[in-house]
Amino acid sequence: MDNNQKTLGMIPLVFFSVGCTLASGVFAISGDYAYAGAYTLGTIIGWAITFVGMLGLVGCFFRLTIVKPELTSGIYSYAKAGFGEFIGFQSAWGYWISAVLAYVTFSTGFLGSLSELLPFLGDGMNFASLIIGSVILWLLVWLLLNGVNQAVIINAVAVIFKCLPILFLVITALVAGAFRWDTFTANFTGEGSGMSVFEQAKACIFTTVWVFIGIEGAVVISTRAKTTKLAGKASIISFVSLFALYFIISMLSMGVADHDTLRSFTDNYTFSMAGVMEYIVGPWGATLVNVAAVISIGCALLTYVILVSDSAFGPANMNCFPKIFVKKNKKDQPTYSIVFGAIFVEIFMIVATISAASYQNCYYLSTIAIMIPYMLSAFYAFKLSCTGELTDGQSGSGKMWTWIAAIIGSIYGIWMLYASSFSYILVCALMYLPGSVLYFIKRKEDGGKMFPKAYDLGAFVVVAALFVLFFVLVASGNEFVLSGF
Fold it and tell me: What pLDDT digit, counting tens, does each position of 414-442 carry?
């Protein structure tokens, strides 16, 4: 890249990263830990694990961007570079599926919050919501096909509207005396809940990963920073700032209302922060949160339509998806990537409506899908650390921190899958294996071996076996696997 294009300073870099990451999850964390079964101590431990693990992942992403600047098609490109064709494809497919499900999640949250003004939308998952959500989706697709793909100003508006109710929550909880220490420490360990503190910490995994999806955005644009060192600092500042924000919100919420009350908010509101605000200041507090959510998530929907499209176009450009996904229209837009993604979003919206899936159900699935690309990126960083490529040119503390990030990131990748439970791993296989159809089409286009390496075939066999096992367990009426939905 021309040095004249390397113009982004610290503030723009931090703002971009925060804007990519600060999405609907911030409105839901107040009650989602209670929804998962975590009490105060379990939540604190869950956050501590997340801080160390995600910090390691951010370090991996940043260092890989410096060492492998040619891998610009998203974090899934690391899997292909490090572990071959099939594993690379599956990582790209998983990242794309995660983006699709994230859009469905945001659409659900948007329509659920809009029901404050339009009650007939219910919880955002009824037939009326499906119709309106579909109209919005295809309107955004039409805009995108006609070249409307810049969402910087929209993203800035979204960040502002997210911050207003958050700031108000913090001020009212502290200044107005809504936070009470006895409420915060009540049943601190969750005694009698049927879950150990360790199990509660594990149960936090989906929420903690969900609220940080997008944190990789800062390292993606590091090549536009004035210096790579500045981009690295911006990535760390963004992560630490977001972590502090999320942690404060969840801690304050547990001091405002007890566990059972917070859990009830996830049933009565699309976003539990609305319940907390109503608990503090009355109904108008919930309205404030819902209006902020409608505006901020509504603004973000265009961004995520673009992300769904790019998550197919990018892999096609790096010879991972079929060539048809790189074809563009007269407006220089990837037509098939946009339409293909929108069709899958529509399918998942229909399935979610029929199955009466909740906001939490949707983002759980989006989160499990992205865990594989995250884990494989960390593994790739560890692999390059072992060969010396990732630490090339470093010495002393720099080399040590690169190793620490690679090790912690890899361990955290394993932890994410372990904490998700085996039922969700089976659900992940259910989402991953169908994508193999595109893999076979692509390999046939290239005229190469279907599975170039033995471990490509081995990975396919493992995914296929888990896919079959899912249906065997469902057919036998196994309730454990059904808990993944």
Answer: 999 898 878 888 888 889 999 899 999 98
Tokens 């899936």 belong to residue: 357
CA distances 236 to 4, 17, 30, 416, Å, are 25, 10, 24, 21
What are the angstrom distances between the C-alpha of 240 and each of 8, 51, 58, 97, 373? 20, 8, 11, 27, 22
Write out pLDDT tens, residues 301-321. Answer: 777 777 787 778 878 887 888
| Token pair for 206 | 């989906």
Q: How high is the pLDDT of residue 155? A: 57
- Three state DSSP letters for the chain: CCHHHCCECHHHHHHHHHHHHCCCHHHHHHHHHHHHCCCHHHHHHHHHHHHHHHHHHHHHHHHHHHHCCCCCCCCHHHHHHHHCHHHHHHHHHHHHHHHHHHHHHHHHHHHHHHCCCCHHHCCCCCHHHHHHHHHHHHHHHHHHHCCCCCCHHHHHHHHHHHHHHHHHHHHHHHHCCCCCHHHHHCCCCCCCCCCCHHHHHHHCHHHHHHCCCCCCHHHHCHHHECCHHHHHHHHHHHHHHHHHHHHHHHHHHHHHCCHHHHHHHHHHCCCHHHHHHHHHHCHHHHHHHHHHHHHHHHHHHHHHHHHHHHHHHHHHHCCCCCHHHHCCCCCCCCHHHHHHHHHHHHHHHHHHHHCCCCHHHHHHHHHHHHHHHHHHHHHHHHHHHHHCCCCCCCCCHHHHHHHHHHHHHHHHHHHHHHHHCHHHHHHHHHHHHHHHHHHHHHHHHHCCCCCCCHHHHHHHHHHHHHHHHHHHHHHCCCHHHHCCC
**pLDDT tens-digit readout, 97-134:** 988 888 888 888 888 888 777 888 877 778 888 899 89
Q: Is the dihedral of CA 279, 283, 285, 290 positive or negative?
A: positive
- Which two three-digit tokens encode residue 23? 């999405």
CB distance 311 to 96 below 8 Å: yes
pTM to 2 decimal places = 0.87
| Position 273 pLDDT exceeds 50 | yes
Among all chains, which residue has been given the structure tokens 């049933």? Answer: 267
